[in-house]
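User: Run a structure prediction on this.
Assistant: Running it now.
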Amino acid sequence: MTQKVGKKKPLYLIWRIIIYTPFLYLVDVIAWTLIHTSPLIPGLLAKKFFDMLSGTSDIQSGLWGLLILVAVTALARAGLIYTGARIDILFRFKESSLIRRNLLETLMKRPGALPTKASTGEILNSFRDDARQIEDSVDWIIDVIGTLIFAIVAVVILISIDAKITLFVFTPLVAVIAMANKASSRIEENRRASRKASAEVNGIAGEMFNSVQAVKILGAEDHIINQFQKLNNKRHKLMLRDTLFTQLLESIYQNTMSLGTGLILLLAAQSMRAGSFSVGDFAVFVYYLAFVTDFTQFYGRYIAHYQQTCVAFQRMSDLMEETPIEKLVEHNRLYMKGEPPRVETSEKIKEDEFSSLVVKNLTYEYSDKGGGISDISFYIKKNTFTVICGKIGSGKTTLLRTLLGLLPAQSGEIIWNGKKILEPSEFFVYPRSAYTSQVPHLLSDTVKDNILLGISRSDVDIDKAIYSAVLEKDISTFESGLETMVGPRGVKLSGGQVQRVAAARMFARDAELLVFDDISSALDIETESILWDRIFSENNKTCLVVSNRKTALQHADHIILLNNGRIEAQGELKELLKSCEGIRQIWG
């Protein structure tokens, strides 16, 4: 169950981002405060210039002195903007990278077989758009601070010139804030709808690319294109509504400011006619007024932006599900320069050597669709071949996933070499365990890199792994051998070749416990027989296999028959064929 972020929590999350790099943020604030307040100087210089032209001021430096000061001020401000931009880019990159890093870590630590509630499109949108939304929200605080300081100083100067006229500056400000607060709920609603529609479009686009073969075989091109067009039209309308409403608010802000400016200029003209207002006063008033009204517009825009940031935090919280939203802004190291630390291959130690595996009362039940496994108990000895079999939907894959921590066990114990395992997902990895799923996932890379998957070739007997997976003849027929590109998800390979590349990847790890989930389902009988023979020829391997194939059952030291998520029977093949009707049905 996800937590509700609310309206105040984002303030705390933003603060946590700021103090991740407090010195950098402070330097950024100082730089941009100087940039935003630097126009105060040209305004005062403009006042002196026009007063000098009208004969109401006697400046010792003269006209050329003023022009030099203006030029120096402009150059100094350009230098500040350049420096501030470089600092700001670095801060922005760090804050958004921290958010994306923590979100990725949270998603990667989820049990591997537990599906996310969000689509791929929604996840990509959060990494791209929501992270950028939060990045802007944190960074714009600097602009609020800078423009606010300018506005305060400028208003003090304007009040010293004419308090009555200055009063009209604050009337639009109050109006802008009131309108922004009133429109906040509508802004939030529009942003949610547009982001959801974008995620749907991205999701179906990803599915189209990943299902090219199926779409072509079924002749469903027109249906898919029509569905994509329908979602895209929906997205277009919602994005247009979101953008239109935001632009409408900004237009109201600008026109409100323009109306206030017109009223102030009329009053200034009356004061000038009365002789209480100099040309220089008029110049500095007009010059500062533009910046002060810009602040009121920007402040109103930031209020609306903050509402949208609340939506971004909530969307990320939805992705993180039960993980606290504070994890998103947890302070972790970012490797900004040079190469990140190399992921070292775990060396096998004596404690990793397998002797026994005991499973007691293991349970995992699906809350949404029903089914699962309940009270599963069995024992695996070293150098044995254990087969899990059963009808479709009996819980075979669920059992393997729960055992390996890919699904979170709701009860039960897993004991490795007499030691209870508290975090199966972290324990059942190389060199203790290696796993090949029923539908293996390959990367759009070469056959070699899919087998090695980050391990140095010098550390692996890749030829032995290929031989064990009965893949050597296939590789000899590939256009570029081991360097052949397999395409997205291995689309250039047959189903059997995909399974055997994944098997070779598992064999390359030389793990103590090999776990197969119906790996021979896409293999012909001859290839399957060779595969098992080569596995059995290595007497130092312990295997846990899901299969209903006779070849696997014949070689099994121990068979576990599942029925409706529970163990119906277990033992040796000969005994089960005599005593168990379920095994006889599978045996045929």
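The chain has a mean pLDDT of 83.
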